[in-house]
C-alpha cells in the first residue's frame, strides 16, 4: 500500500495468496481485459484470492473480467479509484457469489438505484463515494444499503436527497434508519438547502460539510418534525456525534432550530469546543458556538 508499484508479474508463484492490498498505488495500471498477460497470471495464480484492495489506485481502468477471474472474492475495495460502477459493472459484480464487502464509486443516480435493487450486491456496500453526480433526486434506501458505514458526496449537483425506508414489498420497516452509518463527508454539493435526512443516521460519529454554498441549515424544523411524527425514536439528531467539521458554508444559518427536542446538542458543543481549542482557529470556535445557540 501507499507506494509506486508500476508492474506485478509474480502471481503464478503465489497459489495460496488470499489477500492482496494494492490500495493507494498511484502508478499501478490494471485492466482486467486489456492486459491479457495480467489476466492469465490471475487465472493461474490467484483464484483463491478472497480480498482485493484497489482503493485509490488512480490508474485502474476497469474491473471487466473480475467475476470470472477471481470467483472466490469476498472483499473488493474500489473506493476513490477511477472505476465508477455502470450497468456492465453491476453484471460483473453479480458474478462474485461470495462477495461480502464492497466499496464503490457512483456518478449516476439511476445506476445507484439499480445497485439498490440488487439486494445481495447492495447489502455488501460499506463505503460509497458519490462524485460528479447531477440529479434532481437521489434516493437512498436504508434497507438495501443496510451495511453502509461511510458515505462521501463530492462535486455533485443534487436538488434533493430522499430516504426510502420501505422494503421491496413496500412495507414500512420496524427500524427505518442506517444501522451502521458512522461517517458522512459532504464536499462541494450544490442544491440542497438542508440535510434533514441525516436524522436517519442515528449512530453518526463523524460529520464533515465543506464548500457547500447552498446549505442554509442541517436539520430543518418542519421536516424534522414530520419525520419524528412517523418515527418517534428519531427525534434527537446526532446522539453519538463525536466530531463536526464545517467549512466554506457561505449561507449556513443554523444546525437545528428546535431546542426542546434537541437538547443533547449542547453536549456536542462542549465536546466540539474542546476539539476546536487545539485544532481550529478562535474564529471557527466562535462561529460553531453561535450555530448551536438558539
UniProtKB/TrEMBL annotation:
**Can you tell which superkingdom this protein's organism belongs to?**
Eukaryota
What the entry lists under InterPro entries is as follows: LRR_dom_sf (IPR032675)
Q: Which Gene3D superfamilies match?
A: Ribonuclease Inhibitor
Q: State what protein this is by name.
A: (rape) hypothetical protein
